[in-house]
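Troubleshooting entry. Yesterday's outputs looked truncated, so today I'm pasting the complete records for two proteins to confirm everything comes through intact. If either block looks cut off, that's the bug. Protein one:
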Amino acid sequence: MEVGAHAAAEGGVGDAGRDAPAAEPDAPSPPRGGRLRRRWRSWSRRRRITVILLILVSLPLLPVGAAALALRLEYAGDPSDQARTRGRDAIWLGHAWVDGRKGAAELATLAQRLRGTGIHDLYVHAGPLEHDGTLPPSAHPGARQLVDAVHRELPGVRVQAWLGDIVSHGGPGLRLERPPVRAAITASAAQILDAGFEGVHLDLEPVWSGNEDFLNLLTATHALTRARGAPLSVAAAQIDPLPSLHSVFQALRDHPKWWSQRYFGQVARRVDQIAVMSYDTAMPLESLYGGYVAQQTELALEATPAGVDLLMGLPAYYANSWGHRGSAETVAAAVRGVRLGLTRHDPRRPDFGVALYVDFAATDTDWASYRRDWCRLDDRAG
């Protein structure tokens, strides 16, 4: 605006009708700002309004485009050959393994898929917890038989109980702010270990970043599992890709998507394993999703102390919704993202792995990607 106004004043528009010397043949052209302003004025009002509206619509897209470019760059490069399985991987298994729906034949098939891979932990769904934190014994009638069968088929593989429930934020669910509820959850962890499971995997959602009650629960439960010689693991939210993004999201939705990196570290210091649910990201393309996973891997590695297993989740399931594009969130893209993030941060870190979610939805392609890209195996057993 200022350039155009200055050009008009210097052009002597008010003197245009008076006698003036002819312009020299090689006189400089009028300033470009003046030409643009005259062209703008020559347009119809409707055309000018349309251009203004297009500019206003485009402005919010600029940060989105910049973020997409940043994620695409995160997905570029070659991962180190050292960024492979360390034999500390895991897989989430459905409830059918402990309620009698799956038996010896299904376990033989699973064992064939797992042999030679890095799978060390099975998170077997043994809940859900009641809203008061208790766990009915009837929820896991086949626990002991499953653990014994896994030891026969897959020596060295550990079977943990996957316990989950909704965390209340004004509605139904676990009220973690209540000490009796937290005590009941810890008692349920003891009950699971008594039933034959070799570890406790907590998946309580949603937990808001900064929730002290959740930290208190982990502290108490970890004291129990440590005394019993069993690991405590936890399913964790993703980490803020931008500073304080979790605060904005928590203000808008009842199901927060991210934790701060600081809070993630506080959770990690209270457990033996932390598994990032690095899926349901709303990314529309494989390259963007893989770049996002690479970024999440680096952020989680920075926050997880040595001696604590960090596992990055792999989306071994297919769905199409606003939060999950099946064509974008693939095991192959996630594995490549994990390898790139590990390469950039610490390709030799020993206490690191991936976790496949979930056995009953995983396809042959998912298994092949995990075996080939992460474990350096062919896919004939997949």
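Protein two, checking that the full record survives here as well:
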Amino acid sequence: MRASRCEQVAIRGLRYNVRHWGEAGAPVLFLLHGWMDASATFQFVVDSLQRDWHLIAPDWRGYGESEWLGRPYWFPDYYADLDALLNHYSPDQAANVVGHSMGANIAATYAGVRPERIARLVMLDFLGLKPAPGNDAPSVIGRWLDEIAEPPRLRIYPDQVALARRLLAVNPRLTRERAEFLAEFVGRPAPEGGHEMACDPWHKVAAPAVYRIEDALAAWEKVTAPVMLVNAEKGFVNQRFGRDTEEFWRRAKHFRDLRVEWVADAGHNLQHDQPEAVAGLIESFFEIAAR
């Protein structure tokens, strides 16, 4: 495995952990992880890249080694955090970005708000959410009030080995070695003993805001960067919208410069299941940027 190094950076009053692979003089590529995950999730893709890159992957606030709030989170903070991270690491140049799931959600909306700051964008298995039943303000706020009444908790496993076994059970496409790596670097020792995922349990509490796909589509229409949407055969995009359906293309067509790819035999965490295929698609898409 390619060695990574981490540094602690002050981002909007919080201590952010930022993971790096590669040399500082190489072309920069930002890697943005998804919900209940951490920066090390990209290790297998990093190991499969053929070119020299300077890869920069933050742990979002409340994830991994970045500072945890221990209280409810407000999703728009991630847009401001990304803005600050890009200003810190790429102040004078538009950024090349890969985002998985929630990371793609953040990057795609940001790319519509600050189109001049994103040069190219890869979205891994994300094309918006599918609103759940009861997606109205009174229901959403009521659920939020119920959920914050008791502090949320993470599932505790007896040890790191048990967490690795759980990861294998949830995703049979993982190898034992990859599951063990994730249990070590995306998990952590629990304060009361045992092992847990390295995520603030308050992320499990949904924000008291109604999700409207039209808001996301309005941002996507303003994205000027070329976008590649990489979907997993067994992933969330296919499960929610289908591979070639009216709803899929109703959403996708809002990106003015879009390339769509599918990865076979992969679930939502396609960066774990088929990292070689994902790395190949990423490098072919960013070939111009790497020259």
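Both blocks look complete. Sanity check on protein two: Strands lie at 5-11, 14-21, 28-32, 54-58, 95-100, 118-124, 187-189, 195-197, 227-234, 258-267.
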